[in-house]
Write a structure and sequence with these properties.
about 15% strand, alpha+beta, 22 strands, 6 domains, six-stranded mixed β-sheet, 30 helices, Ubiquitin-like (UB roll), Hypothetical protein af1432, five-stranded mixed β-sheet, globular, Beta Polymerase, domain 2
């Protein structure tokens, strides 16, 4: 009994210490000191969650405390948000209601807790429709009070920090959701530090070996980077001291996830990434009004010390990013011949860069505490509301459309009158047209960019002046979906197409009704399905649309076909109890049973037999033994095996997380798998012979396909070989790298 009491006392002390740390953190902020209400919320939550534990074994109250700590210190919110964070799981996990919260803590806290409860358990459920609805709830609540999503991001950050206690398939699901939605949301709200940590934690749990490798290499090169940093910044410090500026210089190290993405996208090793180090100058302006001028004064002074790259000046000071980010980026050539990016920010800009909009929200006085956010955030939320006004039936489409809006870089373009507009990078003239107005976009025939005539598919660049050309005879076409890149334009085009399709479907159904009446044929499901079958339509709706649009005209052949049907055929359609039907049903039943019988918490063992009989290797990423993989139960109840880094797997983890399975290879090097290797280098006589010798003769590997293209002394090539596993590929690549004129070797 004594041991139990001791454990309880220790846990009580741990909880008390965590709460004291939260209060101390809150008192150190500039917010109004409402400690009483925070203490009341803590005591209420502690009592509500009494006796409940997390998977890690610690008392459940430690989770709300951690979320409140992140909300306070890492996002910078005040007492209302801290109370909501402490209470965020009470309504969902206990018998207390939102009304109870409102009676004790007021309407604002209750509204935020209610918003958090509606989107609880992760954004995504078992079914696609539920996912879309939950995500819509999140966005609608966010547009009412942005603090809901900020606390939800804090909740996700703590869950990611404690993800190790979850089963492997759950880790994949949660990490996939995080990369797909939460990290982009944090980025869009200016929470740069949190966005980076969410990405790195997802990367760490999905690709532990690659993460460990990059961390190890970062540690090994740390001293070298410190030396470069000290030598590069010494003359800059001297110059800033002469100017009498109160400043701080920090090193910004590229995150492991960013490094890995660059390695994958550019097919280069860690050693060839040259922008791991960047320098950050953070200064205290003499006056708030002069901070912009001081940024440029610092820029001019450091450009006298080092040569600047002419194409790499980024002015986010005059034109902040949509998430509030402000800084002046310049790339300078060091004395060692390396390009180093320097970011110049004031203290205010630095705080906004790390904590986002929360850093410069202003609280209105009075009982109704509201958030007055910046204009750019309001514009973005308006766009979100517009997308929500045009609901998309398919959840994947909805999530992908929203995602278009989340992670895009930005460009600045001008209207003919010189007004500046922010657009996502990669936007086309047609995107710009829809950003002005749906009518302008719907009737767009082209544009004038910098006074030159261009097609609507023309990609815009920062600084372009754009005039949209329209025609009343123009109308929205399905092919436009391949031209636009922004969420707003995609949503508007789909809305118009759906409206036109609804009208065509209604018209087509009326024409079919008239046809049946005229030919004295009964209109029923069987006859409609028969016409669908005759004209190769899988669904009646598609048939109605084709008739309504005039693409299909019904005639004598259809009449003869309908009237010539035998009653036995109709009878079989109504009562399909034949021997074959029974066999098909039995097969289907067995198939479903086999997929359902799998224990989703266990790790799939991929053996020679199982990948030939039970599982399907995904054709989109072609995994081979040694790759980090996962299983996925598809719509046909089959289990397909994907690489964890496969783009399709990213979407599946985020959208159908409950159908994801952990998997590992257990092979005996009996089977051969195709793998592709990309080569690039200097074109020299006999190079092809050297390549084939290394692969076929030295390593005894079978070449399936070889493509080499030479142009002006350089060559590019792709080789497909048969291997047992990833170690075979690595062996081939290591030997190819030894050929003197080959500069790039990568698996693709």
């Amino acid at each position: 009994m004594e041991d139990v009491l001791t454990k309880e006392e220790m846990e009580a002390k741990m909880v008390d210490d965590a709460f004291r740390h939260l209060v101390d953190s809150y008192l150190a902020t500039k917010h109004r000191k409402k400690v009483d209400v925070i203490t009341k919320a803590f005591n209420f939550a502690r009592h509500a969650h009494k006796g409940v534990r997390r998977l890690s074994g610690e008392p459940y109250i430690m989770h709300p405390l951690a979320v409140a700590q992140i909300t306070c210190m890492e996002i910078g919110l005040g007492s209302t948000s801290i109370c909501a964070a402490l209470l965020h799981d009470v309504v969902e996990d206990t018998d207390y209601t939102v009304e109870d919260i409102e009676n004790m803590f007021g309407a604002k806290v209750a509204q935020i807790v209610d918003g958090l409860t509606k989107i609880s358990g992760g954004i995504f459920g078992d079914h696609a429709s539920a996912q879309a609805e939950n995500f819509k709830k999140l966005l609608l609540t966010m547009s009412e009070d942005i603090r809901v999503i900020l606390i939800k991001i804090a909740d996700r950050l703590h869950n990611m920090r404690t993800l190790g206690s979850q089963a492997v398939n759950k880790r994949y699901k949660i990490a996939g959701e995080t990369l797909y939605i939460y990290a982009p949301l944090a980025n869009r709200l200016g929470l740069n530090t949190i966005k980076t940590e969410l990405e790195d934690l997802s990367f760490k749990y999905e690709h532990p070996e690659e993460y460990a490798m990059i961390q190890k290499k970062l540690e090994a090169t740390e001293n070298e980077r410190n030396t470069v940093f000290d030598e590069f910044t010494a003359p800059i410090r001297k110059q800033l001291d002469v100017m009498g500026i109160n400043y701080e210089i920090k090193a910004r190290i590229k995150s492991p996830y960013s490094i890995w993405c660059k390695m994958q996208n550019k097919h280069i090793p860690f050693e060839e990434i040259y922008d791991i180090l960047a320098v950050r100058i953070i200064f205290e302006p003499r006056e708030l009004e002069s901070e912009l001028n001081e940024c440029f004064n610092i820029y001019v002074s450091i450009c006298k010390i080092y040569t600047s790259h002419p194409d790499r000046l980024r002015d986010w000071v005059s034109h902040p990013k949509a998430n509030g980010y402000q800084a002046l980026h310049v790339t300078l050539m060091s004395n060692k011949g390396e390009w180093i990016e320097v970011q110049i920010r004031s203290q205010r800009m630095d705080e906004i860069a790390e904590k986002g909009f929360a850093a410069h929200w202003k609280y209105k006085e009075g009982d109704k505490t509201e958030l007055a956010s910046e204009n750019e955030l309001d514009k973005w939320l308006t766009t979100i509301k517009e997308i929500l006004d045009d609901p998309q039936p398919d959840a994947m489409d909805f999530l992908d459309t929203i995602k278009l809006n989340l992670f895009a870089s930005e460009i600045f373009v001008f209207t003919p009158k010189g007004e500046i507009r922010t657009m996502p990078a990669g936007s086309t003239a047609l995107d710009f047209a829809f950003s002005i107005h749906t009518f302008v976009g719907s009737h767009c025939i082209g544009a004038k960019v910098n006074h030159k005539l261009v097609p609507m598919s023309h990609k815009l660049n920062s600084g372009d002046q754009v005039e949209i050309l329209t025609s009343k005879s123009q109308h929205v076409q399905k092919s436009w979906l391949n031209i636009v890149t922004t969420a707003k334009a995609t949503t508007k085009i789909l809305a118009v197409l759906r409206r036109e399709e609804r009208e065509a479907r209604k018209k087509g159904e009326e024409i079919l009704d008239d046809f049946f009446k005229k030919e004295d044929i009964v209109k029923n499901t069987i006859n409609i399905e028969h016409i669908c079958k005759v004209h190769d339509f899988t669904k009646p709706d598609a048939l109605f649309v084709a008739i309504g649009e005039g693409k299909l005209k019904l005639g004598d052949d259809d009449v003869n076909s309908l009237k010539g049907k035998e009653s036995s055929v109709i009878w079989k359609k109504i009562f399909p109890f034949g021997k074959k039907q029974k066999e098909d049903d039995e097969k289907k039943k067995n198939k479903v049973k086999s997929a359902d019988s799998i224990d989703r918490k266990k790790i799939l063992s991929l053996t020679e037999d199982s990948i030939q009989d039970k599982y399907v290797l995904a054709t989109c990423c072609k995994p081979i033994p040694g790759d980090s993989v996962m299983g996925f139960i598809d719509d046909d109840n089959r289990i397909s095996i994907h690489k964890l880094r496969c783009p399709n797997a990213e979407r599946l983890k985020a959208n159908y997380g409950n159908r994801v399975l952990a998997a590992k290879w257990d092979m005996n090097r009996l089977l051969l798998f195709p793998a592709n290797i990309y080569l690039k280098g200097l074109d020299k006589m006999g190079l092809l012979n050297q390549i084939t010798q290394v692969i076929s003769q030295l390593l005894n590997v079978n070449i399936r396909r070889l493509e080499i293209e030479s142009n002006e002394g350089l060559f590019e090539g792709k080789i497909q070989i048969f291997v047992h596993d990833t170690s075979d590929i690595q062996n081939v690549m290591d030997n190819l790298k030894k050929i003197p004129n080959i500069k790039v070797v990568a698996r693709v």
